[in-house]
Amino acid sequence: MHPPSRQDYVAITLGQKSSGYNNSKQWRRQSCWRKWKQLSRLQRSLILFTVVLLLICGLASYSTITEKLRGGELETETDSVHPLAPHVLPEPEKTGQLPRPEPPSKKKLPNKRGPPLLLNLQKNGNASNTVEDKPKDSKNKGDEQGVISWRGAVIDTEQGTDGAKDGDAKDDTAADQDIKTVKEAETELLEAVRDSFRHAWQGYKDFAWGHDELRPISKSFSEWFGLGLTLIDALDTMWIMGLKTEFEEAKAWVSTELSFNKNVDVNLFETTIRILGGLLSTYHLTGDTLFLEKAKDIGSRLMPAFNTPSKIPYSDVNIGKGTAHPPRWTSDSTVAEVTSIQLEFRELSRLTQDPQYQAAVAEVTNKVHNLDGKLDGLVPMFINTNSGQFTHQGVFTLGARADSYYEYLLKQWLQGGKKEPQFLEDYLQAVEGVKKNLVQKSSPNGLTFIGELSHGQFSPKMDHLVCFLPGTLALGTYNGLPEDHLDLAKQMMETCYQMYKQMETGLSPEIVHFNMHQGSVRDIEVKLADRHNLLRPETVESLFYLYRFTKDKKYRQWGWEILQNFNKYTKISSGGYTSVNNVRDPDYPSPRDKMESFFLGETLKYLFLLFSDDFSLISLDKYVFNTEAHPLPIWPSAA
Ligand code: DMJ
Q1: What is the pairing mode between strands 524-525 and 382-384?
Q2: CB atoms within 10 A of CB 88
Q3: CB neighbours (10 Å) of residue 12?
Q4: Global pTM exceeds 0.85
Q5: What is the DSSP string of 399-468?
Q6: Which of 125, 192, 405, 474 could be joined to 489 by an S-S link, Cβ 3.0–4.6 Å?
Q7: Nearest-angstrom CA–CA distance, 49 and 39
Q8: CA 336 to ligand 1: nearest atom
Q9: 298 C-alpha vs ligand 1 centroid, how far in Å?
Q10: Are the C-beta atoms of 315 and 384 separated by less than 8 Å?
Q11: Whose CA is nearest to atom 11 of ligand 1?
C-alpha cells in the first residue's frame, strides 16, 4: 500500500477533529445553559456585573497601550519610528571654523526645544514692539496670514505637516519644523550682524587700515594713539563671529606692524580696556601667544602711570619714554578710569605670574574703598593723584566718569571666583545707594530712570552710558545677588529702549532728561547739545545680558530694531558707519564722519551674542566681559 498523500491525511484528520470539536462544543453549550438556569437571580446578576466590569477594564487598557505605542513611550519603541528622534534634529549652527569655547554646565544650557523664536513683524520689515511665540494655530492649514520673519519674508509654517494622518505624529513633525525655523531665523539674524561687521570692516580696511579710527565720509582716518585701535578692539569680535579671513589679515598686521615702542602719549584707561583687554581676550580665545606677548608689552609700558605720590594713577602715559602725567589743566584723575583697569591688570599678573600689575591696581582699589566722601556707596567723579582724595565732591552720577567703577566692583568679585568680599560689599552698598538716591520715575508713563545728584539737588538727567546698568544688575542676580536687582534691571532696560524708540531715527541721543512733573506731555526730553549718537554699545550690551538670563524674546526684538536703525541712519555706502549729530532728524541726522572703535569691539559683538542661542558661545559661567566687551576668563578654582 502506498503511503497516504499529504492531502488525504490532512483531510481525514481534519474531518475527524472537526466533528469531535462540534459535538463537544454543543454538549458544553447545553450543559452551561443548564447550569446558568440553575443559578439564583442574584448569582446571575453578580456574574453579569463582573463580566461587564472586566470588559470595561480591558477596553481602557487597550487604548492606553495604543497611545503609548503611537507616542513612542514604550521601551520597545525605537528611534526609527519616533518622529522626533534626536538624529533628525537640525545640527547646531556653526559660526565659523575657528576654535570655540567649551559648553557651559548643563543646568545653564538653553532649552533647544523651547518656544520658537518667530518675530511678529510688519510685512515691510519694520519691527513691531512685540515679540510673540509662534501662535499654535499658525500651523493649521486654514491660517492664511502665516508668520512673518524678521526680514518680512513669510515663513512656511505648514511645511512638514501636510498629509500627516496620525494626529500625534503631525504635532511632533510640526515641532521639529519649528526647531528648524528657529535655527533659520537665528542664522539670518547672526548673518545680518556679520554683514554689518563686514561693511564696517571694509571701510576700515579701505581707508583707515592700521590707524585708530575710520572717517567714513571723508574716506580717511583719525589718530588718537596711533596704535591701530579699531583693529585691535575688533580682533575678538571677528573670532567670535567666525570671520576667519578678516581675523587672519588683522592678526598678520598685529604680528608684523604693531609696535608699542612709540613716543606717544596714551590714555591709561582707554589703552587698558581697548588694547590690553582686546589682546588678552584674543589670546584666551585663540591660544595664540602672539597676543599674550603683545599684551605683556603694552601692560608693562603702562606701569609708569602708577608712579604718583598717592599711587592713584595719572591719566596719561608716554609708552615710548616711560613717563606719565595728568592732563595739563589738573592733577586729578577720573574715578571710573582709575577703578576700571583692574580686571585687565589682574589677569595680566595671573598669566605672567608677575604680581606687580595686580598689586598696582589693588592699591588703587583699596585706597578708593577706604576713602571718605562717598554717599551710601556712591562715589564722586574725580580723585587727586597727589592727595589720593576725592575732589569736586558732592556730585554723584552713574554716567560719564563714574559708570564702570560700579561695573568693575561686581566683575572683579566674579573674576576672582567670588572670594574677595570687599568687592561684593562695595557693590551691594552702591546698588542700595543708587536705589535710595538716584532712581526716579518719569511722567506721564512712569519710566524708571537713574538721575544725578549735585550737592543734594536731584537732576533728572541720564547719560546713555548709564544703560550698562541693567546688564550689570542682571549679571549680579544671575550670580546669586538679590532678585530685586533684576527687577530694577528690567525696568531700566525698558527705559533705555524707550530712549531709542521715542527718537525720530530710532537711535538714542547721548543724554536725555526725564520729565517728572505731573501733566507732562512726554517722558523724555533731549537738549540740542545732547542729540548726538556715537554708535555706543551700552543698551545692546544690557539687552544681551537680559536675554541670556530671561530668554524673553522682546529683548532680541529691541536689539533687532536698533541694528536696523544703525543701518538706516549711520551706514555709509562706501564702507563703515558714522556717529551722527542729530537723532531727532531722520531726513538729515548729520553725520559726524567718525566710526568709534567700540562699534566693532562692543556694539556689534553684543548684538551678535544677543542673537545667538548658543549660550556656550562666551559662557557667562566662564567669562566676564571687561568694560570694552572683551571677555576675560573667570579664574579657574580661583586659588
Ligand atoms: C567704551 O569705551 C566703554 O564701554 C567704556 O566703558 C564707556 N565708553 C565706551 C562706549 O560707550
Answers
A1: unpaired
A2: 11
A3: 11
A4: no
A5: STTTHHHHHHHHHHHHHTTS--HHHHHHHHHHHHHHHHHTEEE-TTT--EEE-EEETTEEE-EEEGGGGG
A6: 474
A7: 15
A8: 6
A9: 20
A10: no
A11: 536
Give nearest CA residue, ligand 1 atom 1: 628
Question: Is the CB of residue 583 less than 8 Å from the CB of residue 592?
Answer: no
Beta bridge partners of 454: 395, 457
User: What's the CA-to-centroid distance between 630 and ligand 1, angstroms?
Assistant: 11
CA 262, CA 277: separation in Å to the nearest integer? Answer: 20
The C-alpha atoms of residue 214 and residue 218 are separated, in whole angstroms, by 9
Residues with CB under 6 A from ligand 1: 404, 465, 536-537, 598, 602, 627-628
**Are 324 and 304 contacting, i.e. CB atoms less than 8 angstroms apart?**
yes
619 close to 267: Cβ distance less than 8 angstroms: no
Ligand 1 atom with the smallest distance to the CA of 270 is: 2
Give per-residue pLDDT as tens, 178-231: 776 888 899 999 999 999 999 999 999 999 999 999 999 999 999 999 999 999
Q: Is the dihedral of CA 541, 547, 549, 552 positive or negative?
A: positive
235 Cβ contact list (under 8 Å, min separation 6): 247, 250, 251, 254, 278, 279, 282, 291
Low-confidence winner among 165-174, 354-363, 411-420, 506-515 (lowest mean pLDDT): 165-174
The answer to whether residues 384 and 310 touch, using CB atoms and an 8 Å cutoff, is: yes
Looking at residue 570, its amino acid is T
Locate 21 and state its grid cell.
470539536
Centroid of ligand 1 to alpha carbon of 615 (angstroms): 24
Q: Mind listing the pLDDT tens digit for each residue in 490-512?
A: 999 999 999 999 999 999 999 99
Distance 628 CA to ligand 1 centre (A): 6
Q: How far is the CA of 440 from the centre of ligand 1 (A)?
A: 24
Whole-angstrom distance, CA of residue 450 vs CA of residue 460: 7
Q: How far is the CA of 347 from the centre of ligand 1 (A)?
A: 20
How far apart are the C-alpha atoms of 489 and 199, rounded to whole Å?
33
Q: How far apart are CA 450 and CA 466, in angstroms?
A: 8
Pocket probe mutation, ligand 1, options 602, 603, 604, max atoms within 8 Å of Cβ:
602
Cell (9 digits) for 200: 564696517
Q: Which atom of ligand 1 is nearest to the CA of 273?
A: 2
CB 470 within 8 A of CB 441: no
**Each residue's pLDDT tens digit, 354-392:** 999 999 999 999 999 999 999 999 999 999 999 999 999
CB atoms inside a 10 Å sphere around CB 72: 18
> Above 90 in pLDDT, residue 583?
yes
Supply the residues annotated as catalytic.
270, 403, 510, 538
- Cβ atoms 502, 522 nearer than 8 A: yes
Which residue is closest in CA terms to ligand 1's atom 6? Answer: 627
**C-alpha cell, 491:** 525696568
**Going by CA atoms, what residue is nearest to atom 2 of ligand 1?**
628
User: Which of the listed residues 340, 344, 404, 539 should we mutate to test ligand 1's pocket, taking the one with most ligand atoms within 8 A of CB?
Assistant: 404
DSSP for 316-383?
Answer: EEETTTTEEE--TT-SEEEHHHHTSSHHHHHHHHHHHT-THHHHHHHHHHHHHHH-S--BTTB--SEE
Ligand 1 atom showing the smallest separation from residue 629 Cα? 4
Task: State which of 224, 233, 272, 273 you would mutate to test the pocket of ligand 1, scoring each by most atoms of that ligand within 8 A of its C-beta.
Answer: 273
